[in-house]
Amino acid sequence: MIAIAGNYNGWVIFLSFVISLMASYSALNLVYKISHTRGKAQQGWMAASAFVMGSGIWTMHFVGMMAFHVGLPVKYDIPTTLISILAAILASYVAFYLTLSKQVNRLKLAGGGIVMGAGIVAMHYTGMASMRSPGMSITYDPLLWAVSAIIAVIVSYAALFLFIRFRHSNRAGFSKWAAAGLMGLAVCGMHYSGMTAASFWCGDISVLQEKVPLDLFLLVGVSFATLCIMLVTWGAIYFDRTVLERMAYSDPLTGLGNRHAMNRYFQEELVESASLAIMFLDLDRFKLINDTLGHDVGDLLVQAAADRLRSYMSDNVQVFRLGGDEFLLAAKNMDEAEAKQLAEQLLERIRKPYMLEGNELYITCSLGISFAPEHGTNGSKLLIAADTAMYQAKRQGKNKYYIYNQELAAQSSRRMELEKDLQLALAKQQFLLYYQPKWNAETNRPTGFEALLRWKHPVHGIVPPDEFIPIAEETGLIVSMTRWVLEQACADCVSWNAREEQPLNVSVNLSMKVFDSKNLNDMVDEALARAGLAPELLELEITETIVMNNVPDVIAQLTPLQEMGITISMDDFGSGYSSLGTLDLIPFHTLKIDKLFMQQSHLPAKRAIVNTIIVLAHQLNLEVVAEGVETEQQLEFLRTSGCRVMQGYYFSKPMPKEQLDEWLESVHLSPLQRKLPG
Questions:
Q1: Is the N or C terminus of the chain more exposed, i.e. has fewer CB atoms within 10 Å?
Q2: What is the pTM of this model?
Q3: pLDDT per position as a tens digit, 280-310
Q4: What is the pLDDT of residues 533-556, one digit of tens each?
Q5: In 333-373, at which residue ranges do the beta strands (DSSP E only) sit?
Q6: What residue spans define the domains of the chain?
Q7: Domain 416-669 has what CATH class?
């Protein structure tokens, strides 16, 4: 056997380095896509990336072998060559798989380097075994073989380290190109050290040739095909980043990041040790502007607000639009004092006037603030906390910020519990009706009762109406609850009137949700028929807000009831939107003065308003009922102002049906002795 001393073609060696460089750069780009996708998309990117990277490494190896000339014509066994390609792809797959873990320790990195290095060694030496030439054989120096294997493991370790280093970077830069160059040199170094370990032998000297022509077609074809694969990959990545990612992660109206971008931000930035401030911002009264000026102006307002918020963006502060008029600011490394300062700036900036389509608009916002890790260690918990705090800011009068705290957490937890239990409260017969009398100060006798809903919770006892009624409104349970109230109140009214000479009516409060359900007339008809109550003894109370929400619809639903003989009252008059322009359109019989005026009846301005309401009601031939009467001074003021029907603790607190029967008997035996003027 004769030892063959081969030689290298320098230009082909350079080509192998270029291919290695391009493959390494492609890998660093692709690892970002793998780390920032989930599910099937992630598996698809990982498979494609492993194919591109493995093919690139193999092509570098194949071109490197073609750069070596041994004076013999060489062909390649196709099955063995395919096995070497598969080894490269599988090794690359291992590398990409290991980059999925958010925290990779040294042991895991070393294990990955060993597995990937073994795959590259298998690819290299299987590729060498695919070489076929008459009379040629290959032997390997054990020491140099071991050195090449060690280099392969070190190269793989370095590659994995760089994958992890750049997995959150999607931008081309000098550092990434430098890293790709280092990886390219390392892969080439491993290949050519492996070639050094090989010794080529020839048993038949007659087959040796002075010059063996380079198979340019094979060389150019393999290189070109591989480079095309990489270029197509780069094109796909570019399109994904510039078009698809913008569509997926950008809000089309404002250009800010959307909810998907926010979720990705949390996944990247929110770790156990991270200090993060979350600000949930909601524009106040935005719906009113949308409804009055149109959605086009509403969109312009959202864009203008987004532009103001965008000015706060920096490396540490990101802004997202979650939808509608809701925005979220996420600030890294911000303590409570800095968050308060930023919140004050945001409130001030948002409430400055907007000039839109010839309209000078003024709007405020409400802010809810939460912190990581104090209020949660994942985006969902932090968002819920900030959202809860934002609604607390709205409840406190809007144009404010509120920081989530343990008390609010307890309230939120209780609300969630009540909402869950409220679903079954009606079926479990946990609701009770209490009745508060309406008193005629002239006759010194009751005229009727207002039905007030109470919830006897099995754990919390009597839950205040102002706590569970809003929940029932939001969930829509108020409709079925109102149906039950109507039926029970009508039945109780029949019961107490069976023992009364003078009829005493019952009044029931209605919600806007009942009007929205379009079932009001059917509910009233069923309740009256089931109890056998005359329509004249039922009174329905609605608020100003209900009236102003949809005047034509409210009139359409109330008119048939009024024609039946049912009394219609406006509850809490003077506390909501002005409805003076609709008082003569809606079939009201009674105005109920809000108790707020009685609580402040010592103020001359409030007394003047009460006098005005009473005069207005009389001129419209409407009855007046004053709520919240608690003192004799208030009663005397109302009596002298011309209001004869009153309601409040001065006459009686709300009471269940059993106590009501006893109370009526006591009134008959000994009418309430009130020191009435006159």
A1: C
A2: 0.58
A3: 999 998 988 888 888 899 999 999 999 999 9
A4: 999 999 999 987 787 777 888 889
A5: 354-356, 359-361, 365-372
A6: 2-243, 259-404, 416-669
A7: alpha beta
